TrEMBL record:
The entry's keywords: Copper, Membrane, Signal-anchor, Transmembrane, Transmembrane helix
Chain ranges passing through the membrane: 12-33
A Pfam match: CtaG_Cox11
Similarity-based family: Belongs to the COX11/CtaG family.
Keyword Transmembrane helix set for record: yes
Function: Exerts its effect at some terminal stage of cytochrome c oxidase synthesis, probably by being involved in the insertion of the copper B into subunit I.
Subcellular locations according to the entry: Cell inner membrane
Domain of life: Bacteria
GO CC entries: plasma membrane
Statement: the UniProt record of this protein carries the keyword Transmembrane: yes
Species this chain originates from: Nitrogeniibacter mangrovi
The name this protein goes by in its record: Cytochrome c oxidase assembly protein CtaG
Amino acid sequence: MSAPANENRRLLTRLGVAAVAMFGFGFAMVPFYNAICRVTGLRNILQPDAVENTQVDRSRSVVVEFDANLHAMAWHFRPVQRAVEIHPGELVQVAYEVTNTRDEPVTGQAVPSYGPQLAGKHFRKVDCFCFEQQTLAPRETRTMPVVFVIDPGLPQDVRTITLSYTFFEVEGTRAPALREGRT
């Protein structure tokens, strides 16, 4: 067998091993991600949270501030209210408003974050626009609700929580509309 044929065979073997290793790594990421989420308290942002304690703690109140951010998107995004004062255990509904400033449909996904970080373990979203991707028509404005409960187990020293959403454009969602000739 010639030297180039041997080199090609070795290269093919190496590429095959690399492909199998990458495939295995992809499968290993799922349990690894789940373990990290358990350790850090992160939850699936695409599903409602379980509300375990429905007792309202009227002995204290917490101020929840709302923040809105965009990551490289030509949208306007803001909370309708800047803050609310609530009792832990109380069911609350607030709203965010978003406008697509483009002349074409755009799809985005909102990702929540909390401040202080430990508040995320006690913040239970029952209904949220962040559970699904949002597709806005050209120049469309939409008001989107967030329904939540602050778990009464929130530490007593936490008196203010910031709920922040960042919208990211979902890649690859504009191409079909452009291929069909819509703008």
